[in-house]
Design goal:
- By secondary structure, the chain is α+β, with helices and mostly antiparallel strands.
- The protein has helices at residues 5-15, 43-61, 98-108, 122-126, 145-150, 155-165, and strands at 20-28, 31-32, 38-39, 66-74, 81-89, 112-116, 136-141.
- A five-stranded antiparallel β-sheet has the order 6-1-5-4-7. The protein has a two-stranded antiparallel ribbon with strand order 2-3.
- The radius of gyration is 16 Å and the shape is globular.
- The two termini are 16 Å apart.
Length: 169
């Protein structure tokens, strides 16, 4: 079921309260199973691909990075396809060369888009719009994002953090 536009806009407003640094989109490609047969991507493969992306990013900056992402399942066509999109926070992400890192991801993961987050475009442009498509989407949180959100002391951002935490499964 697609959430209504008001809920999608509200989530975008909540996400805009934070200092995101990077937006990433990784297309999940078919893979070979242990028998060497080509398999269609599925949710599990999407999570493995996202894990490999995060490992590359961790290697690039020297530690884990916090993110809020979503797995998008496209319904069009005969074969379902998946993309994983994410917003990343952390001051050290400013030093990541998006062009160089994109090339590294293309080599190891396949089709990858990486952009410096532009707060004027906002989270609706980068992430939340995928919730209103004709496919299905599932939000995913980095391991420490909930802890980071709970640690926010600024009262104006605290309400936004609580709203985002309420979405976590």
């Amino acid at each position: 079921m697609t959430p209504n536009k008001h809920l999608i806009d509200a989530l975008g407003d909540h996400l805009d309260a934070f200092s995101w640094k990077l937006w990433v989109s990784v297309t999940v490609k078919p893979y070979l199973d242990e028998k060497g047969q080509v398999c269609r991507p599925d949710n599990e493969q999407a999570m493995r691909t996202w894990g490999r992306f995060n490992k590359l990013l961790r290697h690039e900056i020297g530690h884990r990075s916090e993110f809020l992402g979503l797995i998008e399942r496209h319904k069009e066509g005969v074969t379902p396809s998946f993309c994983v999109h994410g917003l990343f926070c952390g001051e050290d992400l400013k030093r990541v060369s998006t062009e160089v890192f994109r090339e590294k991801c293309l080599k190891h993961l396949g089709e990858t888009a990486i952009e410096t987050y532009d707060p004027h475009r906002g989270a609706k442009h980068y992430l939340v719009k995928y919730l209103s498509g004709d496919g299905e989407a599932e939000l995913i949180f980095s391991r420490n994002l909930p802890r980071w959100l709970r640690s926010i002391e600024d009262s104006s951002q605290r309400a936004h953090a609580e709203a985002i935490l309420a979405l976590r499964p």
